[in-house]
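A student in our group prepared the protein record below, which I am reviewing. What it holds is a sequence and that sequence's fold in C-alpha coordinate form. My question to you is simply how this chain folds and whether the C-alpha coordinates agree. Do not assume that whoever made the record got everything right. I have pasted the whole thing underneath without changing anything:
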Amino acid sequence: MMNWLNNFIIYLDTVFHNWGFHFYDIPALVLCLIMAITGLLHWLKQNKRDDDHEEELKDFYEDFKERHGLSNDTQIKEVR
Protein backbone atom coordinates (compact mmCIF):
# COMPACT_ATOMS: atom_id res chain seq x y z
CA MET A 1 0.00 0.00 0.00
CA MET A 2 2.84 2.41 0.77
CA ASN A 3 4.72 1.29 -2.33
CA TRP A 4 3.51 4.33 -4.32
CA LEU A 5 4.78 6.66 -1.58
CA ASN A 6 8.21 5.01 -1.60
CA ASN A 7 8.32 5.22 -5.38
CA PHE A 8 7.31 8.90 -5.25
CA ILE A 9 10.02 9.69 -2.68
CA ILE A 10 12.63 7.87 -4.78
CA TYR A 11 11.43 9.76 -7.88
CA LEU A 12 11.66 13.15 -6.11
CA ASP A 13 15.07 12.30 -4.69
CA THR A 14 16.32 11.32 -8.16
CA VAL A 15 14.93 14.46 -9.82
CA PHE A 16 16.23 16.83 -7.14
CA HIS A 17 19.62 15.10 -7.12
CA ASN A 18 19.89 15.54 -10.89
CA TRP A 19 19.16 19.27 -10.43
CA GLY A 20 21.74 19.54 -7.66
CA PHE A 21 19.19 19.50 -4.83
CA HIS A 22 18.60 16.95 -2.15
CA PHE A 23 15.19 15.84 -0.94
CA TYR A 24 15.46 17.88 2.27
CA ASP A 25 16.50 21.12 0.51
CA ILE A 26 12.99 22.12 -0.56
CA PRO A 27 11.53 22.29 2.99
CA ALA A 28 14.67 24.13 4.12
CA LEU A 29 14.29 26.67 1.30
CA VAL A 30 10.62 27.18 2.12
CA LEU A 31 11.50 27.72 5.79
CA CYS A 32 14.22 30.24 4.86
CA LEU A 33 11.75 32.12 2.67
CA ILE A 34 9.17 32.22 5.48
CA MET A 35 11.81 33.44 7.94
CA ALA A 36 12.98 36.17 5.54
CA ILE A 37 9.40 37.40 5.02
CA THR A 38 8.74 37.34 8.77
CA GLY A 39 11.93 39.30 9.45
CA LEU A 40 11.06 41.89 6.81
CA LEU A 41 7.55 42.35 8.19
CA HIS A 42 8.89 42.69 11.74
CA TRP A 43 11.42 45.29 10.60
CA LEU A 44 8.73 47.33 8.80
CA LYS A 45 6.33 47.18 11.74
CA GLN A 46 9.10 48.12 14.18
CA ASN A 47 9.94 51.20 12.11
CA LYS A 48 6.29 52.23 12.20
CA ARG A 49 6.16 51.73 15.98
CA ASP A 50 9.31 53.86 16.36
CA ASP A 51 7.74 56.65 14.29
CA ASP A 52 4.53 56.48 16.34
CA HIS A 53 6.55 56.59 19.56
CA GLU A 54 8.43 59.69 18.39
CA GLU A 55 5.10 61.42 17.70
CA GLU A 56 3.79 60.45 21.15
CA LEU A 57 6.94 61.86 22.79
CA LYS A 58 6.60 65.09 20.84
CA ASP A 59 2.96 65.44 21.93
CA PHE A 60 3.89 64.61 25.51
CA TYR A 61 6.63 67.29 25.65
CA GLU A 62 4.34 69.89 24.08
CA ASP A 63 1.64 69.09 26.62
CA PHE A 64 4.22 69.15 29.44
CA LYS A 65 5.43 72.59 28.37
CA GLU A 66 1.85 73.91 28.26
CA ARG A 67 0.94 72.52 31.68
CA HIS A 68 4.04 73.92 33.36
CA GLY A 69 4.02 77.26 31.57
CA LEU A 70 7.30 76.79 29.76
CA SER A 71 8.02 78.65 26.56
CA ASN A 72 8.57 76.87 23.28
CA ASP A 73 12.24 77.92 23.43
CA THR A 74 12.81 75.89 26.57
CA GLN A 75 14.70 72.70 25.94
CA ILE A 76 13.64 69.67 27.93
CA LYS A 77 16.52 67.32 28.47
CA GLU A 78 15.56 63.77 27.62
CA VAL A 79 16.96 61.18 29.98
CA ARG A 80 17.52 57.72 28.56
